[in-house]
Hints:
By secondary structure, this protein is mostly helical. It has a single domain (9-159), classed as 3-Layer(aba) Sandwich (Rossmann fold). The protein has helices at residues 9-21, 54-58, 72-81, 94-104, 121-132, 137-157, 162-183, and strands spanning 26-29, 46-49, 66-68, 85-87, 108-110. The strands form two sheets. A three-stranded parallel β-sheet has the order 3-4-5, with helices on both faces. It has a two-stranded parallel ribbon with strand order 1-2. Helix 1 crosses helix 5 (121-132) and helix 3 crosses helix 6 (137-157). The longest helix is centred in the last third of the chain and has 22 residues, at 162-183. The radius of gyration is 19 Å and the shape is globular. The relative contact order is 0.13. This is UDP-glycosyltransferase 87A2-like. GO terms for molecular function: UDP-glycosyltransferase activity. It comes from Ziziphus jujuba. Keywords: Transferase.
Amino acid sequence: xxxxxxxxxxxxxxxxxxxxxxxVRYFWVARGDTSRFEDGFxxxxxxxxxxxxxxxxxxxxxxxxxxxxxxxxxxxxxIFAEVPMLTCPIFFDQIPxxxxxxxxxxxxxxxxxxxxxxxxxxxxxxxxxxxxDLECKEGKKMRKRAKELQEACHGAIAKGxxxxxxxxxxxxxxxxxxxxxxxxx
Length: 185
C-alpha cells in the first residue's frame, strides 16, 4: 500500500479477504504487522513476503495485475511492465495518479469508493477476478492500452528519447552550476 501510509485495519482485512476469496494466485508484499497473514493465509494460491524488487516482479510474465496505492514510482513501474492496475489511492499525488490510470489512460480499475466507505471483500474479489480475466473484452482493451504506454515508456528511455534528453539536459545544467560556483569566490 505504500512506504509511509496504509489503509485502515478494517479495510486491510477486507482487501486480504477479497484477494484470497478471488481464487486468483497472488504475490503480496506485507510490511509491518503481518499477523493477518499467519496460519497459512496464502495456502496454495498465495505467497506473502516482507519485501521484493517490485519492478522485477512486475516484469515477470506470470503477473497479470497489480494492486497499487498509485504512488508515481509504482505507477511508472507498472506501465514499464505493461501490467494493468487495481488502484487504491490513499493521499497526496496518489489521487490524481489514480485518475490518470483509470480515467485517462484506462489501464486500471478503481477500488476506492467515492465516499471513502469501506470496500467489501466481495467487491474486491470481483475486481481482482475482472482484472485477471484475459478473455474479458474490456480487459483486452486495457492490456492493449497498457502495451501502447509501455512502448511509449521504452521509447522515452531509449537513446534520443525524451527522458534520455531531459536527463542529459539536467546533468549539463547541474555541471554548469558547479562550474559557476567554482568561479565565484
